[in-house]
Specification:
3 helices, alpha+beta, 25% strand, 60s Ribosomal Protein L30, Chain: A, 6 strands, single chain
Length: 150
Amino acid sequence: MKRDPILLSMLCLLVCVSASAADRKYIVNSRPADAKALPFSEGVLAGDTLYIAGHLGLDPKTGQAPTNPEDELRLVMEGVKQTVESAGLTMDDVVSVQIFCTDLNLYGAFNGVYQTYFHGDYPARAFIGTDKLLRGAHFEIMGIAVKRSR
């Protein structure tokens, strides 16, 4: 069997890059102590890439989503921002987000709040309709950020 040297070189490079990123894995958790018992991290920084877990906009006093969707949006965006900044990045490092929403009629309200969290170019984005979210939330946001050279 003939081996392709280019393919073998690419495979070796991929393994080296993956191993390097795995060596620099950093878990981001800024949640209150009682929430840290949940089986996930708010974010995982692997190399220069931050994987942001799904965030809900819950009222810290009640643990439920506020009845006003714009209040919920501010809470969810502040949660994402806190995770991003805890990893040493900014919201302008966010390159991709997925938004899950229980009411697609809230698309305009979402955009009104969302756009205030970015300067310049916006991340790639998907706005996805869904039936239900935990704790009565209307929105859940997850994403990816990549640390830019400064």
